Amino acid sequence: MVLFIIFSLIAVVAAIGVVVSRKPIYSALFLLLNFATLAALYIMLEAQFLAAVQIIVYAGAIVVLILFVIMLIGGGELHDIRDQSLPLAKRFTWPRIMGLVLFVLLVGTLAYSLITGALNPVQGDATAFGQGSIQAIGSVLYTDYLLPFELMSVLLLVGMIGAVVLARPPD
Amino acid sequence: MNPDIPILSIILFLPLLGALVLLLLPSEKLQKWWTLGVTVATFLASCLLIVWWQEGYAGMQFIERYDWVALFNIQYLLGVDGLSVWLVLLTTFMTMLVIVFSWEGIAKNLKGYLFLILLLETGMIGVFVALDLVLFYIFWELSLVPMYFLIGIWGGPKRVYAAVKFFIFTMVASALMLVGILMLYRQGGTFDLLELQKMSLSPNLQVWLFLAFGLAFAVKVPLFPFHTWLPDAHVQAPTGGSVILAGILLKMGTYGFLRFCLTMFPDATRQFVPWIAALAVIGIIYGGLVALTQRDVKSLVAYSSVAHLGFVVLGLFALNSQGIAGASLQMVNHGLSTGALFLLVGMLYNRRHTRNLDEFGGLWKVMPVFGFLFLIVAFSSAGLPGLNGFVGEFNILLGAFRSNPVFAVIGTVGIVVGAWYLLRAIREMLQGPLTKPENMALSDLNKREVLTLVPIIILIVVIGLFPNLFLSKINPSADAVAAELENRPAVTLMIDK
Amino acid sequence: MTFPTINLLAIAPQIILVVAACITLLLDLVVQNKRSLGWFSLGSVLTALAALIFLRPATPEFQPGAVGSNMALADGLSWIAGAAILIAVGLAILVSIDHVADFTRRIGAYYALLLLAAVGMLAMVTASDFMTIFLGLEIFSLALYILVGYYHSDLRSGEAALKYFLLGAFASGFFLYGIALIYGATGQTNLAAITMSIAPLSSNLPFAPLLPIGMGLLLVGFGFKVALVPFHMWTPDVYQGAPTTVTAFMSVAVKTAAFTALIRVLASVTTFSRPWLLVLAVMAALTMTWGNLAALRQTSVKRMLAYSSIAHAGYILTGVAAGTERGAQAALYYLVVYTFMTFGAFGVVLAAQRRDQNDLTTSQIAGLASRQPFLAVLMSIFMFALIGIPPLAGFFGKLYVFGAAVDAGLTWLAVIGVINSGIAAFYYLRITVSMYMDAPEAAAEGSGSIAARNTSALVLTALVVAAAGTVILGLWQQPLVNGIAQAVVALLP
Amino acid sequence: MVPTEYYLILAAVLFSIGALGVVFRRNVLIIFMCVEMMLNAVNLTFVALAHHFMDLNGQIFVLVAVAVAAAEVAVGLAILMKVIRGKDTTNVQDINLLKG
Amino acid sequence: MSDYAWLMLLFPAIGLVVISFFGTRLSKGIVGWLASLMVALSFLVAVAVFVQMLGLPVEARGQRVPLWSWMTAGDFHADAALLIDQLSIIMALVVTGVGFLIHVYSIGYMHDDPRFPRFFAYMNLFILMMLVLVLADNYLMLYVGWEGVGLSSYLLIGFWYEKPAAANAGMKAFLVNRVGDLGLLLAIMIIWTSLGTLQFNEVFQRAETLWAVGGTFAVATTLLMLLGATGKSAQIPLFVWLPDAMEGPTPVSALIHAATMVTAGVYLIARSGVLYALAPVSASLAAVIGAATALFAATIALTQVDLKRILAYSTISQLGFMFMAVGVGAYSAGIFHLVTHAFFKALLFLGAGSVMHALDGELDIRKMGNLRAKMPTTNWTFLIGAAALAGIPLFSGFFSKDEILYYDYLYQPLLWLVGTITAFLTAVYAFRAYFMPFWGTERVKKRWDHAHESPRIMTIPLIILAVGAVVVGLIGIPFASWIEPWLEPVFATAHEIKHAEEAAGSDMTKTVLLAIAAIIALSGAFVAYRAFLVSTEWPKRVRASLGGFGTLVENKYRVDELYNAAVVAPLLGLARWFAGPMDQRTIDGAVNGLAGLTGSLGERVRRLQVGQVGIYALSMLFGAVAILIWLAVQ
Fold first, then answer.
1. Proportion of chain E above pLDDT 70, given as a percent
2. Could you tell me how far CA E550 lies from the centroid of its own chain?
3. C235 within 8 A of C305, measured Cβ to Cβ
4. What pTM does this model have?
5. Which chain A residue has the Cα nearest residue D5?
């Protein structure tokens, strides 16, 4: 429980950090922190494989890619220039106030729904769950989830084509 | 008497087929003759309805019934009775004459013009013969499109405004009718008018449905205060379009009231009688007075249509045999006389390129035939006894008087106003000194133009003198409708002794 | 450990298209004549269509049932939606053959992405599990993000892609969260299993209150894809910025795929008390009103049509919101019809716009009827079909959806709908006014590029197909309506 | 043992913060990161529920989500690069050629 | 007789059709004589019918002649049918007889007119319609004739349509008549609604049994009918059109606006005698209106200087007498005066036409004089006409007017008093109209020099009419009247109903009244002689002493102006207000405003689409939150 509180606090702080950081690069680093915290939580939830995937794919690939882009297009120009030069009051334009209000409402609604109903303990098949091991996941992934798996490959193919087509400068 | 051929379908689709063939024809001359041939053939085919007519029968005749979309119970269901058969004939007849009129004077894209008129003919006939609500609605909306283009492409200077206004105004108004149709379907599970008429709906629902249908019809008629599209459309439309618009298209509204509101929602109809009749008489007086101030002859005739159609609606909502039969006949009468008025104005416009009364005066001197024909038509329109207009108006007023004398009295006042604006038009156009040099050189009507008008004149006189030729077919159906509506036994004798 | 037997026949069209997409990419490297890539892709689409037809519900080969552990389902619904999608992609390829070179050199990838987008859509409409639905959605979304940004010389194309992408990813988040919460509510992601689990008694659910919340979040995702107010904001920008060929494709196919999946999802929770139907009804009303109002004063035909497509999403949603069998039938019918008429409308934009432009202003089509009368006639057919003038198919679409709404007691929605049709008539008519009643703009005439240009025969072919569909589906709709009826009957438990 | 609801609420908060970031920030990259954060929050929900149900389905879903996120990043950053090359800005307020 | 009576209608119809379609191709002579011939044939048929009727027993004299089934709607039915009875045949004889003479006269009078054929077509149309009116078997058909004569009147008044005054007068005539027609139409509706038939005899039978004396239906019907009658017969309040109608060719004035059409109102009331008997109020009102009109018009006639206008007001005044007759139930007397009036007034008008013909259209009697030297025939015939009008004993007008005054006396002596005063005035203006043109000195020499007697074709009808004006009175000489018993069967029912209230007169009273009338007429003629020939200063003094009232009378009591200000101008104002502020701005403005509102709403919605991702996302978030909150609280 203590761990959960610690990690969740870190996660929330990191998330807020992402949102409020002045420079994208700080945001990216906060994001990294957030991802890592989540990986820890995954482990607490017996999802070791996913925790590994989380670190490898998100931290290792995605954040790095974002950092790469930040570097590529030049760090200096990347912060919200207008935002920073304005006094605090003016930064809170009506869309932002609205956004905050909506944020509060969203959190409230979700929390309200989650708290009002009691989550019935439904005991699944703990053996098949196999504590989120690679073996357990692999065995279902290639049998029951074969079709989604194949579709994932198509998805990645599309992503690949897209990256190639778009990123290559026009010839 | 009725040979086993789908005569209604033939009448309905002959113009459409003709229109499609027309697209393939190369020369303008060929196109004109072909179109004329098609319309004449359609007219002759529609005459067969009279030949094969089963006299004295109130119900639908020449019924054709096929499933169309079985899942939603949409049928291809056609039929005519005494209330619609003359409107079908009016349609085929006037369309034919419009083609003759349009022989010359269509400056651009004659093929498109003829195509649209034929398409319009199918649409209009369809409205009068369809007995399935969806089918009816299809033709109802379909007839908008050709008229929209006729006004928009061949119309006057403000044609785009007028065309769009016409389209949007009538379409928005009929949109709610679609909801009404769907609500009926929800109640009855069918779009079959004959079935739906037998159904008894709750009074509350009837009120809503009446409003939904009534709005569409009121705009089409047009009933005051939904009439403002009409002057614009009429004035801007090319003559052929005006003729069809006034002669036939407006009848779709009154016919709709008769065929749908009166028969399907009798309770609501009775409830709404004072309101609709009030609007009708307001329209009569209002339309007449506004017509009185118009300088543009077409605009004058347009407002006169508001007044005349007010009479028709007044007759329908008398809810008795006289009113309904009179209104049914008056629809035809108005089609003939107003159609003829528009033709005449169009002929004048073709010569003079203006319709402003200020530009005319003393034309009778240079155009005696024109003057003569205009006179007859104007008096027909003014309801002179012996001509057709009187028969309809009298029966309407008689029926209205029987159901509510107050409205009839006001309506009768409208007759005076009706004479006023028409005489004023004659006074300013035909009479008075011939001063304008442009007018002195005007040529009288040529043979083709006279030929266009003579059939109408003949009918004007024949209906006036022998209305029973027409009423005998209308009456059984009108009586049937009236009998359904009369919640009390017909009172013919009122005794105060 | 046993491998599942996958009914490959049932997903044959998808397989064909994936393979074809790969081959197209490879051919791109070796073939000089890029048009042949188009023909090849078109051939593959036709093959896929043939496969689909071969597996049509009437034949014994067609087995409605699970494909690969209930991940996908080939049934009447997926058959009809699949056919519509394949027709859309086929038409899109057909109109692209002559036009793709206007805006890109990466032609092989273009066709491959079109095909893969279609695969994603097919996957979505055959999906019977949230996982496959989500994957299908993401596949075609990704492909479309790329395709939207394909107009290399137009900054607006890239901008559109960026907006579409950012908001799309945002919406995906909601969508996925919705799935998660439904999973939380039911313990299932499979639609059939969800139906089973909520069938006995809603109190049996692990976490019943989460179901409506999950459905609500799901609706956000769907609402984004089919452009429902207030999730529609991207639509005009993206439709305008995207190459017109892509706009034509995405405006119809995405709606088909997403709406079909939505219908499936809604059908799976049919036994639950369904508060979200009212949400849908309100959204439908808002959507059509907003779309029509915003379209009124547009000067870009493409943008106007984009708003029009928003409005039509509202109409389709009206059928869905009815939550009845008739409503689903109506929505499906409308989708098929919508495919033809909206594709046709964008196709005419493509044919009428200048080769060096990716947009068409209303003034540019002034006098089109005198320059290209046939094109004007086609456009008029599409416009009147979109207005809902009978006997064109658009009218029946409206008739059925509003009928379903009335049947379901949503008369107010039908009233709003028909009033909207009236408002909409105004801007559709403006197109016909421009074409037939306005004099050609001097500048447009002077540049000569419109007047001189002949419309590509391929585009015309596609337009004629679309027009034929628009007309024929109105007059002779029995086969389609019957098919839809069967599909929907099979859908509901 | 931490109740599953706690995880779910944490995920909801994270998701909301992400959503707030999307509407709050004007830097395209940061918006993009916020979207990623939202997806992660959902992943957390899935994992928590999978653990609660002892059901691998949820975990597989996370795998799918990760794949989707990866593909999206690739495509998204590519689009971003393209736009930035054209407009030389990452402020979404400046990216509004299309409007109205 | 019923088997050929329809020929009466056929002949003018043939004339109408032939002349309308072929008139311009035929020579003037053929057209003129063809038209006259057709009327003559009609007259002969009428005579034949009349003669045959004389030979029939009284009960068999009234016969229906069904022509065809005209109009049916539900339980409403009206036939096209003729009713040949004692009343209608008298009317038909007058119409065709006088009509024929006027046709012949017109051949000469209209000889130089370029639209000669059209004139005769209209005239035949008029004869046809007038016959329909008088021969109709039911109210609806009567209405056809009623409006039909209105049409021909309109056409003929506006025959010289180039003259704005003529065109306006035609329009005015038709419209004012339409106002009256409205009343008749409503009356017809009440009759049918209440009695279920429009056929005369059935109506009268049923009314007698179903309607109470003085009951609402009877009173309403007859009052409305009275409105119609005042319109057609130019009585107060609807008389204003008739003076203007003098813009038409003079034969038209003679035929339509003196002899026949304007008497239709009298005919209508006489025909509907039963109904009026059931509604004493209306009948009295008719009498009062008649009396008022008679006096009123006579005063105006005294002041007019336009010869035709004098005659026009005289006609109004004489029609007032007829109303006084039918109003008090003296239908035979009314019809008798109608017949005599037809002769002498037609004669006077034709005489006036002859004068005009001689003086190039001059009508101002102050510019005439001493025409008897130039136009002997016209002089003598005009004198006879004036004498008959004035009621000089032994001329026809004397007998018929006296008959009326007698019955009025019986009914209400006040009416008699008014009638007698009017009779005096009549004599004065009649002889004023005679003396000023024909006697004295030629006031405008140049005109006088050119003056000449009219051709024979015009003078012969004058002579025949003059003879008629003298002898026709013989059918109703006091104590030995032929016409009263002849018509009695027609009015029997009406008289029966009225019988109770009728005061019986004595021969003594009648004789005294006769004497008074004779004295009045002669003194009136003498006054005219003194005032307008001998001491011409005298009328001027009288005029001066009258002051403002005199001006008012000279201006015809400013009734036209009153109507313009009270009815026409407000209506036109209302029309303009409808057309402008109401129609264009309010109603159409609302329509366009709604469209504009939708458009601007669209513009606002469009503006919300700011193109920024943040706002778009905000919108989505808003939607999501809204949905979630709603679903959460469910």
1. 99
2. 27
3. no
4. 0.91
5. A114
**Residue E21 scores a pLDDT above 80:** yes
The ipTM estimated for the assembled molecules is 0.90
A123 CB within 8 Å of a chain C CB = no
pLDDT of residue B17: 94
Nearest CA in chain B to E176: B416
Quick: pLDDT tens for A117-134.
656 656 566 666 666 678
Please state, in angstroms and rounded to a whole number, the distance separating the CA atoms of residues E422 and E428: 10
The mean pLDDT value for C425-441 works out to 85
Q: Which residues of D touch E614 (CB under 8 A)?
A: 22-26, 31, 92-93
Say which of E602, E611, E631 has its CB closest to residue C296. E602
Q: Does B171 touch chain C (CB under 8 A)?
A: yes
- Is the CB of residue D29 less than 8 Å away from at least one CB of chain C? no
Residue pair E348/E382 in contact by the 8 Å Cβ criterion: yes
Kindly report, residue by residue over E40-98, the tens digit of the pLDDT.
999 999 999 999 888 888 888 888 888 889 988 888 888 899 999 889 999 999 999 99
DSSP annotation string for B34-49:
HHHHHHHHHHHHHHHH
Is D24 an 8 Å CB contact of chain A? yes
Cβ <8 Å between A95 and E615: yes
SS3 E82: strand
CB-based contact E627 C224, cutoff 8 Å: no
pLDDT computed for residue C205 by the predictor? 58
Residue of D nearest to E608 (CA): D100
Secondary structure of E570-599 as H, E, C letters = HHHHHHHHHHHHHHHHHHHHHHHHHHHHHH
Q: Specify the DSSP element, H or E, that contains B65.
A: strand B61-69
Where residue B361 falls (left for φ over 0; alpha for ψ -120 to 50; beta otherwise) is: left
Residue E237, preceding bond cis, omega within 30 degrees? yes
How far is residue D76's CA from residue D32's CA, in Å, rounded to a whole number? 8
Chains A and E touch (3+ CB pairs under 8 A): yes
What per-residue confidence (pLDDT) applies to A86? 57
* Chain B adjacent subunits, 3+ CB pairs under 8 A: C, E
Residue C361, SS3 per DSSP: strand
pLDDT of residue A87: 58
CB-CB contact of C140 with C114 (8 Å) = no
What is the full DSSP assignment across chain A? -HHHHHHHHHHHHHHHHHHH-SSHHHHHHHHHHHHHHHHHHHHHTT-HHHHHHIIIIIIIIIIHHHHHHHHHT-GGG-S-HHHHHS-HHHH--HHHHHHHHHHHHHHHHHHHHHHHS--------HHHHGGG-HHHHHHHHTTTTHHHHHHHHHHHHHHHHHHHHHHSPP-
Q: Which two tokens stand for residue E614?
A: 């943040």
C-alpha dist (Å) from residue E323 to C302, E91, E234, E408, E415? 81, 16, 11, 11, 11
Q: Which tokens in the block code for residue C353?
A: 């716009």
Q: According to the 3-state scheme, what is the secondary structure of B196-230? A: HHHCCCCHHHHHHHHHHHHHHHHHHCCCCCCCCHH
Average pLDDT over residues B66-92: 90
Q: Read out DSSP for E44-76?
A: HHHHHHHHHHHTS-GGGS-EEEEEEEEEEETTE
Q: Are the beta carbons of D39 and C187 separated by less than 8 Å?
A: no
Which chain D residues are closer than 8 Å to A122 by Cβ?
A: 52-53
- Among C176, C201, C207, most A C-beta atoms within 10 A, so best to mutate, is C207
* Pick from C217, C237, C426: CB nearest E624: C217
Give the angle E516-E517-E518 at the CA atoms, nearest 5°: 90
- Rounded to whole angstroms, the Cα distance separating B103 from B115 reads 14
Tell me the per-residue pLDDT of D25-51, one tens digit each, with 9 for 90 and over.
888 888 889 999 999 999 999 998 888
CB atoms within 10 A of CB B224: 26
